[in-house]
């Protein structure tokens, strides 16, 4: 199992809408994530910086990267683009975080 961590940014006035759109997350998107080996996926919020910290366990980096090419992921990016910092293709601006400590 590979642990992935990354951060993104939500616009300060859009946090409540961001949370609302995730509860519940689209069933088809959830199924796609699971079918691509994703488990234990969480997103946390830092109110001082408006940063979102994502954590997910994935079975392979290849499967994780393939999610971005699915139609449902592209639809989700479009749906969320007005709430957060995005790239030209509406994917979230995301910075991978390097693991420096792990305790099991």
Automatic annotation (TrEMBL):
One Pfam family recorded for the sequence: rhaM
Top-level class of the enzyme under EC nomenclature: isomerase
Keyword Cytoplasm recorded: yes
Keyword tRNA processing: no
GO biological process entries: rhamnose catabolic process
EC assignment: 5.1.3.32
One cellular component term from this protein's GO annotations in UniProt: cytoplasm
GO molecular function terms listed in the Swiss-Prot or TrEMBL record: L-rhamnose mutarotase activity
Swiss-Prot/TrEMBL keywords: Carbohydrate metabolism, Cytoplasm, Isomerase, Rhamnose metabolism
SUPFAM superfamilies per record: Dimeric alpha+beta barrel
Domain of life (superkingdom): Bacteria
Protein name per UniProt: L-rhamnose mutarotase
Source organism (scientific name): Echinicola strongylocentroti
């Amino acid at each position: 199992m590979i642990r992935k961590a990354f951060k993104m940014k939500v616009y300060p006035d859009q946090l409540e809408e961001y949370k609302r759109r995730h509860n519940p997350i689209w069933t088809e998107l959830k199924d796609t994530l699971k079918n691509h080996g994703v488990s234990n996926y969480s997103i946390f919020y830092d109110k001082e910086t408006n940063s979102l910290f994502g954590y997910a366990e994935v079975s392979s980096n290849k499967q994780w990267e393939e999610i971005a090419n699915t139609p449902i992921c592209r639809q989700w990016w479009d749906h969320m683009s007005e709430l957060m910092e995005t790239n030209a293709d509406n994917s979230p601006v995301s910075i991978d975080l390097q693991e420096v400590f792990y305790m099991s």
